[in-house]
């Protein structure tokens, strides 16, 4: 079945977080897509809406089997029904785990640059952020294991939040890396919360490795957060699963989610997830091809028209990580200047923690014509910013 990802959807005046901007602005910042979700999911939602009664919902057997079947087929990972707990979102789950599995003033480790909301989940709950900065050699990111172990060995470090695949750098962590992380966390009694929300947005031909699949120590010492929301553009429906193989850890997680009242689905959350994981495969495969074409289009344009910027190679997500290391000035200032002069709204890399200061993040999950508009604005904005910096000097 053909899918029209070139179709432009007007999202203004729809209470969209992303598109609640000035009329001349083009938002390419927050990580949601400008595509309609899969037709099969739309059918499931309409069917539920037509029923007309939206009372309290339960979690049926079909929901568990949808997750189990998808992870077996797509990721060659056999989950068990008992592992799965419904949650309203990955961020609520992470915040709940920080509260339940650590104590105030303890340290929670993250590999930076990383999804900035992790910092909120840590700091807002009275814990300390502990950053282990990834190594970047100009082409790829790697874990600095010497630094990582030193920080995991701190007795005050009780949790590590892992991003797998890694947002914003688009890195798929390989089995060897994950196993080494898992062994270090096991050795130092640090529980791993693995955010795997981007796992279905790998480039065609690439696959991710579920953290819990790597080894017995990884499986017994982790909480994994998974969802259809990122891949199928369903963030507003608040539907996620938390998978915890270890029964003792699972009980703590279950208690935390229920105490925080984030373990009950809304009227559409269950039906949408079931439809995504049982009927959405063809749409997702077509989407991944389209996003890869967008990546290639953007990389070619930037290489030829904006050579001051380097696109970091990635294997996952629809987020470009743009390195401004060849330019004078600051990336954060550049982001503000580009938005003011051209209307292009990008994410400044500094918000993603250590190592993000010379970067911008650009969301390219949009129709090709919109992407081309964004790239033209990027070229115009960078040129104007460079002239501004020169004149200021």
Describe the protein in words:
- By secondary structure, the chain is an alpha/beta fold.
- The chain has two domains: 26-37 and 281-388, Aspartate Aminotransferase, domain 1 (Alpha-Beta Complex); 41-279, Aspartate Aminotransferase, domain 2, CATH 3.40.640.10.
- It is built from twelve helices and 15 strands.
- It has helices at 39-51, 61-75, 90-101, 117-123, 145-152, 175-187, 216-220, 247-259, 269-279, 281-305, 331-342, 368-392; strands at residues 26-27, 84-87, 107-112, 128-133, 135-136, 141-142, 157-163, 191-195, 222-226, 240-243, 310-311, 319-323, 344-345, 347-348, 359-363.
- Helix 3 (90-101) runs parallel beside helix 4, helix 3 crosses helix 8 (247-259) and helix 11 crosses helix 12 (368-392).
- The mean pLDDT is 97.
What features would you highlight for this structure?
alpha/beta, 4-stranded antiparallel sheet, Aspartate Aminotransferase, domain 1, 7-stranded mixed sheet, Aspartate Aminotransferase, domain 2, 393 residues
Structural class: alpha/beta
Query: What proportion strand?
Result: 15-25%
Q: CA-to-CA gap between the ends?
A: 56 Å
CATH H-level homologous superfamily name of the largest domain: Type I PLP-dependent aspartate aminotransferase-like (Major domain)
Number of helices: 12
């Amino acid at each position: 079945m053909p899918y029209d990802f070139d179709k432009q959807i007007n999202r203004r005046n729809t209470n969209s977080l992303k598109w609640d901007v000035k009329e001349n602005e083009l938002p390419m910042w927050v990580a949601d897509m400008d595509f309609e979700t899969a037709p099969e999911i739309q059918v499931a939602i309409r069917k539920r809406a037509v029923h007309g009664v939206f009372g309290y919902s339960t979690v049926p057997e079909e929901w568990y089997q949808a997750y189990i079947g998808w992870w077996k087929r797509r990721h060659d990972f056999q989950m068990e029904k008992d592992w799965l707990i419904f949650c309203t979102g990955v961020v609520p789950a992470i915040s709940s785990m920080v509260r339940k599995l650590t104590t105030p003033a303890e340290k929670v480790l993250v590999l930076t640059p990383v999804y900035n909301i992790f910092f909120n989940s840590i700091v807002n709950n009275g814990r300390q952020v502990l950053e282990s900065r990834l190594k970047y050699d100009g082409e790829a990111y790697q874990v600095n294991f010497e630094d990582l172990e030193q920080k995991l060995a701190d007795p005050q470090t009780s949790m590590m939040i892992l991003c797998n695949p890694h947002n914003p750098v688009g890195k798929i962590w390989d089995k060897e890396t994950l196993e080494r992380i898992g062994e270090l966390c096991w050795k130092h009694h640090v529980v791993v919360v693995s955010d795997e929300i981007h796992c279905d947005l790998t480039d065609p031909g690439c696959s991710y490795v579920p953290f819990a699949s790597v080894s017995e120590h990884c499986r017994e010492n982790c909480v994994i957060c998974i969802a259809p929301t990122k891949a199928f553009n369903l963030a507003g429906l608040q539907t996620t699963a938390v998978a915890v193989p270890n029964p003792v850890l699972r009980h703590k997680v279950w208690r935390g989610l229920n105490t925080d009242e984030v373990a009950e689905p809304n009227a559409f959350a269950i039906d949408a997830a079931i439809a995504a994981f049982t009927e959405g495969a063809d749409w997702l495969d077509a989407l991944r091809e389209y996003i890869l074409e967008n990546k290639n289009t953007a990389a070619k344009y930037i290489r030829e028209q904006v050579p001051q910027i380097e696109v970091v190679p990635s294997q996952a997500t629809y987020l470009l990580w743009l390195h401004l290391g060849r330019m004078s000035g600051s990336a954060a200032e550049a982001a503000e200047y580009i938005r003011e002069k051209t209307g292009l709204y990008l994410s400044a890399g500094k918000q993603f923690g250590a190592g993000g200061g010379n970067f911008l993040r650009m969301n390219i999950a949009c129709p090709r014509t919109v992407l081309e508009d964004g790239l033209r604005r990027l070229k115009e904005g960078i040129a104007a910013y460079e002239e501004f910096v020169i004149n200021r000097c």
